[in-house]
Amino acid sequence: MKQLNVGILGLGTVGGGTYTVLKRNASEITRRTGVAINVVQVADRNLANAKALAADVEVTDDAFAVVNNPAVDVVVELIGGYTLSRELVLKAIANKKHVVTANKALIALHGNEIFAAAKANHVIVAFEAAVAGGIPIIKALREGLGANRVEWVAGIINGTTNFILTEMREKGLNFADVLGEAQRLGYAEADPTFDVEGIDAAHKLTIMSAIAFGMPMKFEQAYTEGITKLEQVDIKYAEELGYRVKLLGITKRSDSGVELRVHPTLIPEKRLVANVNGAMNAVVVKGDAVGPTLYYGAGAGAEPTASAVVADLMDVARLIDATSAQRVPYLAFQPEQVQDLAILPIEEVQSAYYLRLRASDKPGVLADVTKILGDRSISIDAMLQKEPDENETEADIVILTHITVEKNMNAAIAAIEALEAITGKVVRIRMEELAK
Ligand code: HSE
């Protein structure tokens, strides 16, 4: 029987899960592929742990020993980060080894360089586990939806923030109260600001955008806004109006360019994706032929992520003897067809909005606010005015608008904030229907 020899870099949560799944399901995997997938070497800084887990495998604390090992056909990179991992992956490719990685930061930041090197060396670089953990969204976008012109992709692609937002809504807690618990549950990145500031989601969105539209990775141009400033009161008001607040990664193609943005977003509660709770992930992809499609599952964790890593290894096992032309291109499109599409700055993005303002409870304030919006052709969709609490003279006004261009809304907000009757800043959250 054909053999595929694997070297694993990093035997932590995902590496351990990968090793376990490969062992437990070995016969089923071989029935599917016709290939025996063997782990022949593992590198981890914690030698004792690695030896305890992978007792029958050669273990080293030198990752370069694995990428330089002539017996290894495919390197599985699970160490994270994007400095050492970049070096190791490029070295593995130079040594004509195939690479499977779960590393979203590495692909989002250095994917263009890595794919160029992989093409030159005729090796596979597979990265299903880098986006939404166990959900096979890369395969769906790249192959299952290949007949479509993809119009947009919107996803809950960070479990930590989805867990925090779910707790805030269900228990009426504030952001700071829930953060610690999310970290304790082990979904968070080594640096949790990557989760709560939307950077992790932007890495994953960048990858989806590249394969949805056939363009290079453009992480540095992604607009990223996290959930740290989100207030409990806005989650409550949104709910009163029939919406849920989710941290969404959104990428859309229009004639003027590509939107690439991560931010808290109001979604109608009747959408399935609005009901994705806890640490779960979900991605909606709109194709011109198929319409909106939804992919749901665990976006993190040992075995869910291992599920994607092992599926990639199975692809390598099947395609190892194929020519580059017979393989699915890295970015879904033929390399010479990858287009350098322009990313729209956030000021040019089109969105509907939720606005909350604090206003003196006196005649004419609402008329002034609606005039500012009307003067800029911003149409109001719904409005909510809360009665001031006893002994208070100011009230919250919540406005939902129809779609406008962001720079127009920026000008309107500046004018509203300049009104004498308005106290403090206007809270603005973008809103998406995700219907068509
Ligand atoms: N920190 C990530 C999350 C882990 O919370 O979704 C998976 O990439």
Automatic annotation (TrEMBL):
The family line of this record is: Belongs to the homoserine dehydrogenase family.
Alphabetical list of PROSITE patterns matching this protein: ACT, HOMOSER_DHGENASE
Q: Where is the ACT domain?
A: 354-431
**Species in which this protein is naturally found:** Methylotenera mobilis (strain JLW8 / ATCC BAA-1282 / DSM 17540)
User: Per its record, what are the GO molecular function terms?
Assistant: homoserine dehydrogenase activity; NADP binding
Question: Any idea which UniProt keywords this protein has?
Answer: Amino-acid biosynthesis, Methionine biosynthesis, NADP, Oxidoreductase, Threonine biosynthesis
Superkingdom of origin: Bacteria
**What's the name of the protein?**
Homoserine dehydrogenase
